[in-house]
Amino acid sequence: MSLRLSTLILPYLRWHEGGRSTWTRAEELGFHAGYTYDHLSWRTFRDGPWFGAVPTLTAAAAATGRMRLGTMVTSPNFRHPVTLAKELISLDDVSGGRITLGIGAGGTGFDATVLGQEPWSPRERADRLAEFVPLLDRLLTEDSVSSEGDFYSAHEARNLPGCVQRPRLPFAVAATGPRGLRLTARYGQAWVTTGDPSLFESGTPEQSVAALRGQIDKLGAACAELGRDVAEVDKILLTGFTPDRQRPLESVEAFVDFAGRHRDLGFTEIVLHWPIPDSDFAADEKVFEKIATEAPGLLA
Q: How confident is the model at residue 1 (pLDDT cuts 50, 70, 90)?
């Protein structure tokens, strides 16, 4: 099974002070896709520069020509399907059809309260995602949409000319619970996981692999319920949140071992955070570039 290698570039650099050059370098290194976080601020980066995902991806689309681009991931925390659809159609057009929408239920961080609301419970987040995704699917595939929901409505929302990618740009749904996995099975072209968060602090790599195997099995069951072949769904692992942390980036050999074990589970794409000094994503940039250029051939 082939394994694609992608990167995630945090939007913390000014475009003309390292932002643009990072995206173009990612394409030069041969990454399949370059993603960015869709947050208004994030963790330890909250008190420093942080730029919007859609403008960043628009600039990246203009600066690159081959690499796929996308969010990892967008959530309903501060998004509405109608306005998001318009931005995605525009972004897909600018990029020439290279956009993937990573989408999930979101969490309880800064994005959950920045608009003045109380954080939603896990059930409320799942409820909203269950309404958000089907409406967004319609908005990206139909010329005009009217819908009245419990959380999101649209009144004659016009969506011409639609996406460059047909019938719409792909959804990569981040989910581990039963409702999210059912959404993935019905609407997703890909599935995203970061692993089992309960194992991050004290788990082992072996326990993490077992947990990921269980998640893939549940995805397979959700697809089977709908009569869909789970092999049709790409499986994306966003690294940096398993017990391995950044250890796979210590050498090409360490990464190939890590990636091979996860490829054998059924993953089709592995996403590495672009190195950021003095952060949780610190890594040797020379080793990172060697992994990007050498590891795909060793994993073929």
A: low
